């Protein structure tokens, strides 16, 4: 008996349907949380199929799967997101990223922010281990624990406003919000996070020039590659009213420019692409849309309509908690936005900002966050000690950022 069927028959069957739906929904979330430790893509796909099999008739489930995997817009977005880790991997393997960091002629504090931030913008495997040595060599004025905290903090806070951050792309799409409007609302929380890092993490670093000489050509080439995609994306979306085609064109243009700059041969390009595992990102996007489609049609939304809870508990408490528990940023976004929309209706940009910021703060200090673990290992420190060092900055950012967003709420409405 499928939930959609038994919800429409008798009261007894309705009760059975409710139980089925609740159990199926809880198990689907558990599958995401458990399997995501190894692969969030696989977790989302398995959870989607499981929820669909239990709650939706087979012919409808097959139709939903076909619709999602043949939707031109979804395929374009999935392809664009899949290309992003290839760009990160190629910037790394070509040495262009190293050259850009080496030719950063600004203050020591700026270098400590810039080096992990730029590398953190690119979803390449082991990125934390690439930026950690740069942070380590930049100064001897602070402890290894504090260096680890700086590497972890500035690797991630820029993802609050970076338009090619996969979680931000996924979240804004699920919420039905233009990504650049979402960034405008998230920006206050980002600014708070950035400033707190300066005062709490970098306060004991004395400024001074990191590099005496600079090759501006080597500095700007990779920077142009990184900035070209969002520039094309926002231009085409605003001028020609494009959607995911704009993102695909922008990311493709960045990749082509990078190939030209790096003069990479086909063998190296294929090896780098294989190492970046673009298919994981491709199927993650399609899996997320599939889970959303199945969830909306599963009968679970009818049950959630009867349950009373505050939207802010969902956005802030659940967002932060899932970020900590899963060590992923996409996971709380994928789970909570569909629940919010079926319970409370359309998510406003301000509410999306609250969820994204809270999830990010939980994600940064999660003990199962790979970047945090790798960073702690590099500096030969216990992960727990790095978390303790980050906690005041992280929680203060969460509280002040959310308070600021609440103060902005009357203006936004």
Please give a handful of descriptors for the protein shown:
disordered N terminus, 0% strand, mainly alpha, 413 residues, 21 helices, globular, 78% helix
Question: What can you tell me about this protein's structure?
Answer:
It is a single chain. The chain has 21 helices and no strands. It has a domain at 154-210 and 299-413. It has helices at residues 3-6, 11-35, 40-55, 58-70, 72-94, 96-102, 108-120, 127-138, 144-156, 166-175, 179-201, 216-239, 244-262, 266-276, 278-296, 300-304, 311-326, 330-344, 349-364, 370-378, 383-412. With 413 residues, the chain is mostly helical. It is globular and about 70 Å long.
Task: Give a short synopsis of this structure.
With 413 residues, this protein is mainly α. The chain has helices at residues 3-6, 11-35, 40-55, 58-70, 72-94, 96-102, 108-120, 127-138, 144-156, 166-175, 179-201, 216-239, 244-262, 266-276, 278-296, 300-304, 311-326, 330-344, 349-364, 370-378, 383-412. Helix 17 (311-326) runs parallel beside helix 19 (349-364).
């Amino acid at each position: 008996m499928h939930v959609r069927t038994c919800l429409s028959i008798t009261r007894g069957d309705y009760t059975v349907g409710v139980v089925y739906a609740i159990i199926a929904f809880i198990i689907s979330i558990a599958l995401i949380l458990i399997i995501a430790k190894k692969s969030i893509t696989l977790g989302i796909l398995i959870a989607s199929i499981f929820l669909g099999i239990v709650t939706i008739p087979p012919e409808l489930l097959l139709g939903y799967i076909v619709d999602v995997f043949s939707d031109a817009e979804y395929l374009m977005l999935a392809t664009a997101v899949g290309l992003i880790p290839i760009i990160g991997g190629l910037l790394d393997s070509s040495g262009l990223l190293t050259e850009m960091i080496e030719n950063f002629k600004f203050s020591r504090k700026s270098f400590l922010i810039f080096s992990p931030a730029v590398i953190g913008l690119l979803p390449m495997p082991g990125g934390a281990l690439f930026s950690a040595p740069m942070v380590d060599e930049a100064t001897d004025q602070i402890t290894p624990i504090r260096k680890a905290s700086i590497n972890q903090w500035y690797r991630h806070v820029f993802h609050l406003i970076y338009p090619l951050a996969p979680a931000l792309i996924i979240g804004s799409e699920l919420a039905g919000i233009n990504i650049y409007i979402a960034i405008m609302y998230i920006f206050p929380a980002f600014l708070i996070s950035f400033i707190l890092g300066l005062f709490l993490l970098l306060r004991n670093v004395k400024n001074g020039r990191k590099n005496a000489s600079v090759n501006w050509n080597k500095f700007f080439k990779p920077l142009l590659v990184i900035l070209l995609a969002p520039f094309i994306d926002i231009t085409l979306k605003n001028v020609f009213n494009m959607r995911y085609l704009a993102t695909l064109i922008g990311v493709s243009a960045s990749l082509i420019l990078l190939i030209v700059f790096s003069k990479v041969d086909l063998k190296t390009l294929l090896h780098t692409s294989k190492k970046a595992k673009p298919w994981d990102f491709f199927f993650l996007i399609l899996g997320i849309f599939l889970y959303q489609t199945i969830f909306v049609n599963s009968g679970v939304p009818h049950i959630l309509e009867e349950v009373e809870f505050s939207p802010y508990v969902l956005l802030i408490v659940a967002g932060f908690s899932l970020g900590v528990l899963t060590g992923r940023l996409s996971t709380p976004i994928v789970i909570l936005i569909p629940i919010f929309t079926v319970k409370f209706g359309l998510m406003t940009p301000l509410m999306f900002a609250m969820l994204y910021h809270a999830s990010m703060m939980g994600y940064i200090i999660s003990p199962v966050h790979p970047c945090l673990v790798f960073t702690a290992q590099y500096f030969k420190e216990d992960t727990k000690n790095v978390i303790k060092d980050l906690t005041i900055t992280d929680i203060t950012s969460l509280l002040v950022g959310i308070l600021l967003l609440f103060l902005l709420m009357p203006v936004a409405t």
